[in-house]
Amino acid sequence: MKNIEFLRFLNLKGPNIWTYRSALEVWIDIGELEDFPSNTIPGFVDRLTTWLPTLIEHRCSYEERGGFVRRLHEGTWPGHILEHVTLELQNLAGLPGGFGKARETNVRGVYKVVVRARHETVTRAALFAARDLVMAAIEDRPYDLDGTLRKLRRMVDRLCLGPSTACIVDAADERRIPTIRLSEGNLVQLGHGCKSRRIWTAESDQTGAIAEGISRDKDLTKSLLETCGVPVPEGRLVDSPADAWDAAQDIGLPVVVKPCDANHGRGVFIDLNTQEEIETAYKVALEEGSGVLVERFVPGLEHRLLIVGGKLAAAARGEPIFIVGDGKSTVQDLLDELNRDPRRGLLEEHLLDPVLLDREPAAVLELQRQNLTTESVPAAGRRILLLRNGNVSSDITDLVHPSVAAAASLAARIVGLDIAGVDIVAEDISRPLQYQGGAIVEVNAGPGLLMHLKPSDGKPRPVGEAIIDNLFGPEENGRIPIVGVTGTHGKTTISRLIARIVHLSGKHVGLACGEGLYFGERQIERGNRATWDAAHRVLLNRAVEAAVFENGSAAILAEGLAYDRCLVGVVANIDPTDSLPEFYIENAEQIATKVKRTQVDLVLPEGAAVLNADDPLVADMAQLCDGEVIFFSTDPASELLTSHLKEGGRAVFLRDGDLIQAEGERQCKVSSVDAIPLTENGAVAYQVENVLAAVGAAWALGIGPEVIRAGIELFGTERAEEQGLKFKSQAA
User: Fold this and answer.
1) Other beta carbons less than 10 A from residue 6's beta carbon
2) pLDDT the model gives residue 622
3) How distant, in Å, are the alpha carbons of 50, 73, 275, 547 from that of 41?
4) Beta bridge mates, 302
């Protein structure tokens, strides 16, 4: 059979006609498969569900477990099947997300398939893989599913956010704080414009460079902590193996030898008792850092306390790592078996590190202490210690003594970190440190969060929420006022007029519209900038206090919107002849119900939609708005307007040449058309509508009538002056 053909991909990077989330839309041609629904292809359903048994979890339109498999048995078409297989491949690769749609077009055999896309490259690869898998099931050919999943998982590991960053982003999403990924790494902006914050894994824009530098210098950190009364192990910097042994004798055996500026526990040797051990440890530690510390050995286990904003957010305890002999396997065999644990790996999402002797000289030393090599065959039942402080983490947040939490918080403040991983060695974390000789051994910037999200024992902790709550107050959501403007005609003028009024109100405004990109009164770029990229640039600008965006139908369909929600959404009008056949949008009604409505869907509950009461297709969108509706009209006797005002609603309308703001029975004259240059004394009817729409939007933003009046009466005068000067220059 003919292969499913991909005709076009649309990377919908923001809210779109399908979903509030980013998605990938692909147009496909299934050709002759239009005549072969799934229930007519012998063995197809069995082959597909054998490869992907987890499809049983897809509820589909029946809204019940097994709903999609039921549809397969009843008969459905390849576009629908491609949607579900793509989603399941993403799920199995580590990108959960259940949104998907498949819709036929007015061309036989051509479908639009839309799936959630957390990363466009991964989702595109999943779509191609899904097509190959579906065709293999149709044609009864073998398919390497394991190889496909390995490839997709590698892509997820390489391209998508790591688990620490992802948990913070998810927490922001729970609080409806918008997020923007700023790089292919883990740099993320939380919020928009001047209200935004930034994170990089578990560091924030509150994490100072000086504090981070202090945390990397273990000797300086210890000195500062000791000066402030925080319990730390005695010790000093050493400059040679002999000096390390001298320091150990001064401090008293056993001791710890470690690099003064390494991290992740590399080159750290503990419980050293002989000159040979100490001098050997010195050489390895020096390779891992720029200097070496010798410290008093503190008995007990290592505990990681996560301090966020001066408060204990979570705590985990590291456990020693052992292997157990069976009388047959070598130490290396037992190590290989230990490292086959799927939780162990070198990537950030792996909860545990592998024990690799070429990277863990401390483990080699422990084996030597037990008179073992990698070729030794330990007796059955013999427990062999590999690392005294391994990375197996048990949650012990509820056990931490208040005084221990206070000491960790003080340590983070002394170093200057808003988010810190404080390492404490103690025999019993539920007792004060001074009663057991416990000590703080390190203070780390940018601590990993995975141990708290997926502890080996105990409950996960909401560390992402703790970081978000530290960055944003209870009433903060990282949002600036955003106005989105759509319609068939007048979008650019309305957008520019709103931006002018916002500017006069005292806010630094960003504007992306059909005439260019503006910041304040300055035009940064000319030409059509009613695009996702231009709007995105506005939202990234940390000087911007409010934003206005023009959104055309083609941009909404091809790119989606750059913002997740807006405070004000304006729909100016819909031309009865409007259509976009190149997107399979055939008439004005489809433009209204499938495309323009997106702008109204995004209005926040505390916001408002500004709608043309004289256009039935626009006025009908009122029922879609989560917030308030402000109608505008050139007909003061409009039945819709009258009804709306009787219910206490707000409206802007033209009466006897005057622009009136009304709320219920209260009315206020804003200006008259004679005073507004844009309308040419009211002679240009469509400009009157544009002004009414802009006045409604400014009112929705809470701007007073005096500023609105100034904005609409001055708008256009500077352009006339510019044109006059240009004319005089040319005449001269």
Assistant:
1) 16
2) 98
3) 15, 10, 76, 54
4) 425
The helices-and-strands tally (H runs, E runs) of the chain is 25, 28
Rounded to whole angstroms, the Cα distance separating 180 from 188 reads 6
What was the pLDDT predicted at 121?
97
Q: How far, CA to CA in Å, does 353 sit from each of 201, 264, 347, 580?
A: 18, 10, 9, 54
CA 382 to chain centre: 47
CB 609 within 8 A of CB 571: yes
Which secondary-structure segment (H or E) carries 344? none
Instruction: Report the alpha-carbon distance of residue 713 to residue 707 in Å, rounded.
Output: 10
- Measured between alpha carbons, how far is 703 from 700 in angstroms, rounded to an integer? 7
Strands (E), 161-248: 179-181, 187-190, 197-200, 203-204, 235-238
Residue 30 to residue 82: CA distance in whole angstroms: 11
> Residue 311: beta bridge partners?
308
Bridge partners of residue 547, in order along the sequence: 482, 510
Closest CA to 443 of 418, 419, 422, 414: 422
Helix, strand, or coil here: 63?
coil
Please list the rounded mean pLDDT of every run of 10 residues in the chain (732 residues): 91 97 97 96 97 95 92 96 98 89 96 96 98 97 97 95 94 97 95 98 95 93 95 94 95 92 74 92 88 93 96 93 90 89 73 76 82 90 80 88 98 98 96 95 93 92 98 97 98 98 98 98 96 98 98 97 98 97 96 97 98 98 98 96 97 97 96 94 93 98 97 77 38 35
C-alpha distances in Å from residue 618, one per residue of 84, 593, 615: 34, 9, 5
User: What string of DSSP letters covers 516-584?
Assistant: EEEETTEEEEES---SHHHHHHHHH-TT-SEEEEE--HHHHHHH--S-S-EEEEEE----TT--BGGGT
Q: Tell how strand 603-612 and strand 628-633 pair up.
A: parallel
179 φ, ψ (degrees, to nearest 5): -130, 145
- Give CA–CA dist 427/429, Å, rounded: 7
**Helix (H), strand (E) at residue 319:** strand 311-324
Got the DSSP string for 130-149?
HHHHHHHHHHT----HHHHH
Q: How many CB atoms lie within 10 A of CB 263?
A: 18
Domains and CATH numbers, the chain: 2-159 (no CATH), 163-210 (no CATH), 234-296 (3.30.1490.20), 482-723 (3.40.1190.10)
Q: What are phi and psi of 389, to 5 degrees?
A: -125, 90
**What pLDDT, on the 0 to 100 scale, is given for residue 724?**
36
pLDDT value of position 348: 62
The Cα diameter of the chain in Å comes to 104
DSSP string covering 461-504, please?
A: --HHHHHHHHHS-TT--S---EEEEE-SSSHHHHHHHHHHHHHH
Return the DSSP state at 632.
E
Cα distance from N-terminal residue to C-terminal residue, the chain = 74
pTM of the model: 0.88
**Residue 573, token pair as written in the block:** 């009008």
